[in-house]
């Protein structure tokens, strides 16, 4: 009978715990298909969080919403999370479109919706069924010249076999704000026979900041870059990093194709490779610089192809030159030294123009997250990403010291377990990465105690107090004549699955129901 009662108690505790805690499950979200471009960017924009103002920017959470910036080129945007753009490799490739234009006359210029035009495959007057002579006037703008009149002209055309992401803005300039909030856009692909090749085609007096572009694959013609094709006016580009490949014919930049006067580019890190078809107007950061580039660096390649503006506090580890062609530009406190001269403590000595107090920091082998001396990095940019790119990063670990004492504060030898590591002693130490950890300490004759600790960039100490366990056989209630009598017990801290021992029959209250348990 006693065994049956114990079984009933455990079952009731399990049921009551489930009722209290509730039943939780995992709902799998339906993934959207990002292997094709969005059909209507205006519809996508309408469904996004935010309203596009400074105080309530549109929030971009996927690559379709990134493309939807096309629908409002003056709005404020932020990235709400990292964006997987790898699906853009299959966008807009081998696309064929048909559009109808009523009552057109010889010499008219008509404009199709999808650009750039690769080829016109058919032009027919659908009222007569006869072919109509037309020609491409401006492929990038989608303009077609009508050379014969038609009542209802149907144009069939292709936008090219290359495809990829459609650079935001096209022939119109972006004038708003895009703040990546430190998030990454990974795998952006653009392959164009025309001049539209970048995340954003052209900007004017716009702000783009706090964005990381990883593993880009960009190919186009003139003025090609991963982030921007061309920057005009008081454009401000800040805290950007890029890795991947960018290729074009001329004015090719790993980050930006061309910057005009008054534009400012600052705190940019480029591990991108910029290549061109025979031209030297290529640089890991900017192809042709007419503005100001400051506090930036590039790996393996000169930062600027052609410089007619200013380059300040910028370096490259290529040990070559800061620019391929300096035409009427200025270069101040910028360095192309040897590796030994620019790594570790030597950097601060050999690069005196850099502000190592606030803008730059040296990378030392003695740092907790490095494996060797490295090149200077920007304090405002992601430290881990910069160290990983230099191949000197290691995951930092910190020390957790756990001391165990009894109720009187005396040292107590205990078994302490943290993250699968077990040690015995009154003081134990563990080497841990950043994160949240459950700690458990136990000793013979003492209750087991648990604690949670968070490691966040520093070592921690923790003291755990263990109390002696009580003997349940010494607990009993008697009446005045010395006889055992029923008693009402409050059971606190009961653990599911543990048998509760009682010396007499007990009234147990679980979720409003009363159960009387009698010891045999």
TrEMBL record:
Residue ranges constituting the PEGA domain according to the UniProt record: 408-467
InterPro entries (alphabetical): CarboxyPept-like_regulatory, PEGA, Peptidase_M26_N_dom
GO terms, molecular function: metalloendopeptidase activity; zinc ion binding
TM region(s), chain numbering: 487-517
Domain Peptidase M26 N-terminal: 172-244
Keywords: Membrane, Transmembrane, Transmembrane helix
Entry's Gene Ontology cellular component terms: membrane
Domain of life, source organism: Archaea
Record-given protein name: PEGA domain-containing protein
């Amino acid at each position: 009978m006693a065994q049956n009662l114990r079984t009933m108690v455990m079952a009731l505790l399990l049921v009551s715990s489930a009722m209290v805690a509730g039943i939780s499950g995992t709902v799998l979200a339906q993934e959207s298909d990002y292997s094709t471009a969005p059909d209507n960017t205006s519809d996508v924009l309408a469904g996004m969080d935010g309203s596009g103002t400074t105080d309530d920017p549109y929030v971009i959470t996927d690559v379709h919403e990134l493309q939807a910036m096309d629908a409002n080129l003056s709005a404020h945007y932020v990235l709400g999370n990292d964006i997987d753009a790898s699906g853009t490799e299959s966008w807009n490739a081998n696309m064929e479109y048909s559009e109808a234009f009523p009552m057109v006359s010889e010499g008219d210029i008509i404009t199709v919706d999808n650009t750039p035009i690769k080829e016109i495959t058919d032009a027919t007057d659908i009222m007569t069924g006869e072919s109509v002579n037309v020609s491409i006037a401006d492929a990038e703008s989608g303009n077609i010249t009508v050379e014969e009149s038609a009542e209802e002209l149907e144009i069939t055309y292709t936008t090219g076999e290359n495809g990829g992401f459609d650079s935001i803005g096209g022939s119109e300039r972006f004038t708003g704000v895009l703040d990546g909030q430190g998030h990454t856009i990974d795998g952006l692909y653009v392959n164009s026979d025309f001049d539209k090749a970048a995340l954003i085609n052209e900007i004017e007096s716009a702000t783009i900041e706090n964005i990381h572009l990883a593993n880009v694959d960009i190919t186009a013609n003139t003025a090609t870059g991963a982030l921007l094709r061309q920057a005009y006016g008081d454009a401000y580009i800040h805290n950007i990093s890029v890795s991947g490949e960018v290729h074009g014919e001329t004015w090719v930049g790993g980050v930006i194709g061309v910057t005009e006067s008054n534009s400012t580019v600052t705190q940019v890190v480029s591990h991108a490779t910029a290549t061109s078809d025979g031209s030297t107007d290529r640089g890991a950061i900017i192809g042709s610089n007419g503005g100001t580039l400051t506090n930036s660096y590039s790996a393996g390649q000169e930062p600027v192809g052609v410089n007619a503006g200013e380059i300040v506090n910028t370096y490259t580890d290529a040990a070559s030159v800061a620019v391929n062609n300096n035409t009427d530009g200025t270069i101040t406190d910028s360095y192309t030294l040897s590796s030994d001269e620019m790594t570790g403590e030597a950097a601060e000595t050999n690069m005196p123009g850099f502000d190592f107090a606030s803008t730059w920091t040296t990378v030392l082998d003695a740092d907790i997250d490095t494996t060797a001396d490295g090149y200077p990095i920007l304090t405002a940019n992601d430290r881990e990403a910069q160290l990983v790119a230099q191949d000197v990063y290691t995951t930092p670990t910190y020390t957790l010291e756990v001391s165990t004492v009894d109720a009187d504060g005396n040292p107590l030898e205990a078994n302490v377990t943290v993250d699968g590591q077990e040690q015995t002693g009154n003081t134990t130490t563990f080497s841990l990465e950043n994160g949240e950890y459950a700690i458990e300490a136990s000793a013979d004759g003492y209750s087991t105690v648990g604690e949670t600790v968070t490691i966040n960039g520093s070592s921690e100490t923790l003291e755990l107090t263990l109390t002696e366990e009580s003997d349940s056989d010494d607990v009993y209630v008697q009446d005045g004549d010395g006889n055992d009598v029923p008693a009402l017990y409050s059971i606190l801290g009961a653990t599911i699955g543990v048998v509760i021992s009682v010396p007499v029959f007990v009234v147990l209250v679980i979720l409003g129901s009363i159960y009387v348990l009698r010891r045999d």
